[in-house]
Amino acid sequence: MNRWSLRQLDVKNAFLHGDLEEEVYMRQPQGYLPAIGFASSHSDPSLFVKHLGSDIVILLLYVDDIILTGSKVALVQEVVDELSSAFDMKDMGKMKYFLGLQISYNTAGDIFVNHAKYAKDLLAKAGLSSCRSCPTPCKPYGQLLKTEGDALTDPTIYRSIVGALQYLTFTRPEISYAVNTVCQFMTTPSELHFQLVKRILRYLQGTLDHGLTFTSGAWELNAYSDADWAADISTRQSTTGFVAFLGHNPISWQSKKQNSVSRSST
Q1: Prediction pTM value
Q2: pLDDT tens for residues 170-198?
Q3: Which stretch of DSSP H or E encloses residue 77?
Q4: Pairing between strand 249-257 and 65-70?
Q5: Which has the closest alpha carbon to 33: 49, 11, 14?
Q6: pLDDT (tens digit, 9 = 90+) per residue, 98-137?
Q7: How far is CA 14 from CA 10, 62, 88, 97, 128, in A?
Q8: Residues pairing with 113 in the sheet
Q9: Which end of the chain is more exposed for a tag (fewer CB within 10 A), N or C?
Q10: For residues 163 and 180, is the Cβ–Cβ distance under 8 A?
């Protein structure tokens, strides 16, 4: 929204490689970031914020991968220098690839995020690298009962692929409903349930270049939601879907079966 640059860092030798034969008891240390002025976010414990007067530096930390941004490049560089003095850091420059997310930038400064490589690897894992694509991730009225079809002899591959699809919804909101549906058959998936998963994969085959574009604009928050009417044929519960936008940018979305049966549309 502010056209701040995104910088990526990596902590070298973050993991202990080796087999431990002894029992090891550990207590998590308080951490280094609070010592240099960062405070953890209440909404995301991996997000750290540092205020310097009217300026701000934001740091996102996942194990040994770090994203840094801020209102001034000089302040971001100061944080990089401080981190490098305490840890063996690798400065990877402008962020381009982070935890499976591919990031590219256009001339206007917009950021495009997608999962193309991740999706290709998932298709290969499922043996569908050369499959024909289909136009939608699911059929409009193709619901199945949990007991329909012959149970898979080994449900491991089903669970593995569906779990990977959940991560893919981070850049593909349009598959959220279809993925939420196949997640409901994790306990005893059948061949028919697996066909639903394959349809999602065939849809991805034809939309590998799809993703999200983040751009600047008015700081307006808008949210949209809807729900079906007791459409789950197994439980008669409703499914809610929502998406929230900050400006033109989707920042939160979900498709989720409601916890109880609604008796009113209010």
Answers
A1: 0.85
A2: 999 999 999 999 999 999 999 999 999 99
A3: helix 73-86
A4: unpaired
A5: 49
A6: 999 999 998 888 999 999 999 999 999 999 999 999 999 9
A7: 9, 11, 9, 19, 35
A8: 103, 212
A9: C
A10: no
